[in-house]
């Protein structure tokens, strides 16, 4: 999440917003929230993960990393799902992707 915080200026220029959702209890989610300027929700359940189409990891009882870029119309423009710490969206990559998309519009 801190990677997105590091790209705060670029994201703001693109009028992009970041929101994080965690299965962690409030105390643990707050540790992340203290490091970033965007909202970090806590206590997400399997039903919450199902609602956004994320994959629920039964063994650990968590929503696996799932990132979505949602357009101004509310539709998902692109998404990424991971079953572990690899292949997650990077804040700088999101800024480049959005910038390129805007330049083609």
Note the main attributes of this structure.
two-stranded antiparallel ribbon; 18% strand; Glutaredoxin; 105 residues; two-stranded parallel sheet; 6 strands; alpha+beta; single chain
Could you describe the 3D structure shown?
The chain is of the alpha+beta class and 105 residues long. It is built from five helices and six strands. It has helices at 2-6, 8-13, 26-33, 46-52, 91-104; strands at residues 20-21, 40-41, 56-57, 62-63, 66-70, 76-81. The protein has a two-stranded parallel sheet. Strands 3-4 form a two-stranded antiparallel ribbon.
How would you summarize what this structure contains?
The protein has helices spanning 2-6, 8-13, 26-33, 46-52, 91-104, and strands spanning 20-21, 40-41, 56-57, 62-63, 66-70, 76-81.
Helices and strands in order:
Elements: H1 2-6, H2 8-13, E1 20-21, H3 26-33, E2 40-41, H4 46-52, E3 56-57, E4 62-63, E5 66-70, E6 76-81, H5 91-104
Parallel strand pairs: 1-2
Antiparallel strand pairs: 3-4, 5-6
How many discrete domains?
A: 1
Mass-distribution shape = globular
**Estimated radius of gyration:** 14 Å
- Give the SSE string: HHEHEHEEEEH
* Rounded mean pLDDT score: 88
Determine and state the CATH class: Alpha Beta
Strand order of the largest sheet: 1-2
User: Which architecture would the CATH scheme give at its second level?
Assistant: 3-Layer(aba) Sandwich
User: Could you give the distance between the termini?
Assistant: 28 Å
Query: Low-confidence parts lasting 5 or more residues at pLDDT below 50?
Result: none
Q: Count of DSSP E strands?
A: 6
CATH topology: Glutaredoxin
Number of helices: 5
Query: Which range best describes the helical content: under 10%, 10-25%, 25-40%, 40-55%, 55-70% or over 70%?
Result: 25-40%
CATH superfamily: Glutaredoxin
Structural class by sheet pairing and helices: alpha+beta
Amount of beta strand: 15-25%
> Could you describe the largest sheet, including whether it forms a barrel?
2 strands, parallel
